[in-house]
Amino acid sequence: MVRTMSLLRALISTARMVRYTPQLAAGLPPDNAVLLDAPDGRLAPALVSAALGEYECAAKLLATTRESAEWENRDRYVTRLAAFAHGRDAWLGAWLRASPRDPDALLVRAELAVRRAWESPARAERLRDTGPLIDAAADGDPRDPVPWRIALDHARGTHATHSAFESLWAQAVRRSSHHYGCHVAALQYLSAQWYGSHRECFDFAEQAAHDALPGSLVRALPVRAAFTQILNGDPTTPVQADRIDAAADLAIEVSAGYEAADPWPAEVRNLLAYVLVGRGRWTAALEQFRLIGPYATSFPWTSVTDDPLGQFLETRDGVRLQVASAMPLRSRADRRGPGGHYA
To answer: Of 31, 109, 205, 265, which residue is 20 to 30 A from 288 by alpha carbon distance?
Structure first.
């Protein structure tokens, strides 16, 4: 009897998936339309030019962000340009030779050096060697918080003390009190994986979210703290579970403030979808996948796989199946017989 009931539940679940999965694809771009870490319209030409060995487009882009104090865009663009230079850096070398004191070139150089050092088996030693490059980038424009975000990443890798970290953090917030990249770097330092704890990480994230400006991605910072706890697979108490759900709810609110398929909040939405899946909140996760549109991001999927795009697509499909399996097999309209009576 038990075996029969289990088989019946499996058949009903399969029937629901067959019926509802296609309609649940509404609003989701097909797999072949999803892009991983797609650049926006300003960054794309700079990357194309860099691929040709030319630096002028990247130089103009970063100079614009510096002159206009677009610190959030500047951080993202520097990160992406350095990632590109990791494999093809001839254009950066040409830029530095032509303008060895250009603050934008110095910033990309510092980010690239730290990125390479992080990947080295001798990470701490290599990172210590990059200190002068970060100092040079910071001297390039005293207003710029991005070198201090790099310095915070550097501090985490060199086992900097809490007092040293706090000194760097003070320099960062003095330049931009709500800079998202600096907050993420600080959160990582304070995580249980590095030099803090889940409680310390959450406390920092929740206070930052409370202090953040309306619409700022910093308001979604607690969901990043929730992610670190879910990723570590640590047992959660009911209180911790409530804290994770509250972080997800706040991030849902932040996500709702942006248009669907907006590349700007794409990483936060990818992260939120991951956390919602971890909490088994399938319907809410499916809504985030719809809002993400074609903009898959490497983070957080690279935390669990070497194929982030594949993991994104598999997770999205899995969420659809979970939502479909929970839907009623027959709607009220289906159950009505001739004349509107229920069958």
So the answer is: 205
Q: Which residues contact 216 (CB under 8 A, 6 or more apart)?
A: 178, 180
Q: Do you find a cis peptide bond into 142, omega within 30 degrees of 0? A: no
Q: Answer for the pair 113, 78: CB distance below 8 angstroms, yes or no.
A: no
Distance CA 240, CA 212 (A): 23
**CA pseudo-torsion sign 33, 38, 40, 46:** negative
C-alpha distances (whole Å) from 280 to each of 82, 227, 242, 309 are 36, 14, 13, 21
With tokens 């003070």, the residue in question is 170
The secondary structure element, H or E, covering residue 52 is none
Tens digits of per-residue pLDDT, 274-313? 999 999 999 999 999 999 999 999 999 999 999 999 999 9
Question: Residues 3-44: pLDDT tens digits?
Answer: 444 444 544 455 455 555 666 677 799 999 999 999 999 999
- Cα 147 from Cα 153, distance rounded (Å): 10
What's the CA gap between 48 and 127, in Å, rounded? Answer: 29
Query: In angstroms, how far is CA 222 from the centroid of its own chain?
Result: 13
Q: Report phi then psi at 342, rounded to 5.
A: -70, 135
What is the rounded CA–CA span in Å between residue 275 and residue 321? 17
Nearest CA to 110 among 67, 68, 81? 81
Q: What are the residues facing 336 on neighbouring strands?
A: 342
